[in-house]
Amino acid sequence: MPQIRRARPAGAFRFRSAPAAVALVTTGALTLTACGGSGGGSGERLRVSMAFPPAQSMSPYGDDAVLLSRLSVIEGLTKLDTSGEAEPALATSWKPSDGGRTWTFQLRKARFQDGRKVTADAVVRSIEEATKASPEPRVLSDAGELKAKAKDADTVAVTSGEPDTLLPQRLANPSLAVLSPEAYGRGEGADKGGKVTVAGHATGPFTLTEVDGAVSATLERNDDYWGGKAKAAGVDVTFTANGTTRANALRSGSTDIAEYVPVSQASVLKQSQIEAVPTARTNSLYMNTGRGPLQDPRLRAAVRSAIDSKALIKSVYEGYADEPEGLLGPGVKWADELRVPVKGRAKPATKAQVKKAPTLTLATYTNRPELPEVVTALQQQFEQAGFRVKQVVRDYARMEADALAGKYDIFVQARNTLLDTGDPVSYLESDFTCKGSFNMSQLCDKAVDKAVDKAAGTGSTAERQRAELAAEAKILRTDAVVPLLHERFIQGVADDIEGVSLDPMERTLVTADTHRE
């Protein structure tokens, strides 16, 4: 389970648009106050300042699903522990058959927030709706066709097109949350363009009752939750894009939890309010192996040799990051013990050869405020090594297509290495194989493909993890990617708040145990 932070000494749903209020959020002027009393007690409401507002009207099939998961509104058949292994959620047990193509899940006794029982038919409906949604949830992009069948009222069989050893982990993804049939409204569902309504139709300890555009949301305690009543009476959520505003709200006492405090704002908080969480997110430098000067492995090696990660961590991240141990950092707890040496790297080009190289285009995006600073620091390091460098820094949405097309020599990005299944094999496949859909390095190396394919085809968790670390070494050998640092996310938590989930996979934050001391 994710680390739980300990403090130190259902109603009608409304979804309102509020364009005037959205402007308040972008300027950081709005902070929601608590609806609970001023005294102590586990029945008070919580106040939470979230960094990202709903992007798809709280749809379960996009990024909003993660938001709903972090607020404990939705649940799936399974959930993930900190190692990425599947644990029981709405399913109590599961077993494979048919060579790993079919997994059979036994359901627990539970009810949806609208009072209906959780049944096998409801689970089947939820999985079918997810597979028909447009756009398709990312977690299904490499899963093949999923089919679900009710074997009896409390038993569901889920079958994939190919054997899928990661299916229990896949079903923990927030986009595959189990919802009441009432969520799909008049039988239209996602496949016919109908709106899927999560509010009041999920199973989590908190029920979403109101959303005010991109400004705020209200959650009430689900008193029929199968795991027992939540300790807080409800949650009042403010969506505040400005990190400085989130930090100041915590400092002033007008919020209890401030999500993703920027490292530049950590100094405004008391040390007791800062929770630095090692995560599965690695900031890496991706070099273009398919075109341009960095096709030469000696130049790539020279770029790698010029990087000073310690300086980046000290100057840009103010110590809230970890030095790179590989592609998989401290948030992937099993990786360090299984890591193997990297062998066969090219020797760096000489400084004279570096000076003759064409100007390198070094690119990143503005959506993560530290990355432009990282690129500026890297430019200085590369120029000291003899390279000529120019920067390209824009919003990510304007850069992704060009990065995937190989139009930059170097692209710096923050990447969640556990992606959608809680296992790094899908990240290794998408980013570093010849057929990879997110291959910003344009890497196509037979040894890498072979190593990643071996990991993807390994059923045993322990054996697959060893194969993944062997694949990591093969990838690092190419210098197509150089890990710069492993991020630590800073969650701001008031001194009197207990039970906040410090989840390295970023799927949980507020839980049934979160409350005021």
UniProtKB/TrEMBL annotation:
InterPro entries recorded: Peptide/Ni-bd, SBP_5, SBP_5_dom
Pfam family membership, one: SBP_bac_5
Coiled coil segments of this chain: none
Segment forming the signal sequence: none
Solute-binding protein family domain: residues covered: 86-437
Family annotation (PANTHER family): MONOACYL PHOSPHATIDYLINOSITOL TETRAMANNOSIDE-BINDING PROTEIN LPQW-RELATED, PERIPLASMIC BINDING COMPONENT OF ABC TRANSPORTER
Official protein name in the record: ABC transporter substrate-binding protein
